Write the structure tokens for this entry.
Amino acid sequence: MRTNQTVRFKCHHCLHCCTDVVALPTPWDVVQIVRQTGRHPDEFIEFLTPDEISNVDEDDPTWLICGDERYLMALQRDSKTGCIFLDQYTRACTIYEARPLLCRLFPFRVKETRDGSFRGFALHNDTGCPLHRNGTVAVHDLRALYERDMKHQEDYEDLVKVFNRQTDPDKRPEDFISMFYLKQPVSS
């Protein structure tokens, strides 16, 4: 099956994705952010309950279960100013080179065949983004990002399964971070 080689889109920096969209990083994304910023994940990660986030399926495999509650790992954000990494003066992403893969893919969605095979990309219709179509984005570049993200997503889901099997009654969603991030001591 032949796929389109490009998707018609050009970002006009409306900042919708940085102010209105909740970024859900993988553990790999978190580690990349730590490497770039030197900050501990506790400084930029939050855990959201189903009441605090919409449009995430109840059976999404990245829900962390602690007692009777479920949580998703997200980049901290403020309802007025947006993502913690959005510079309030320049309105630019301060971690652009290390931004989560889902941020890099927004506002694109994968199109699949009936058997689940990759078919191409399209723009999400209900993103809130103006979806300017006066440019082109190479599908090859998007597909490389998508395939990298899928590998990290599989690892993420495996970690969540292990975390969710833990029966400690005092388990907190913040404990999930220690499953993939161990702060290295500073050498003297």
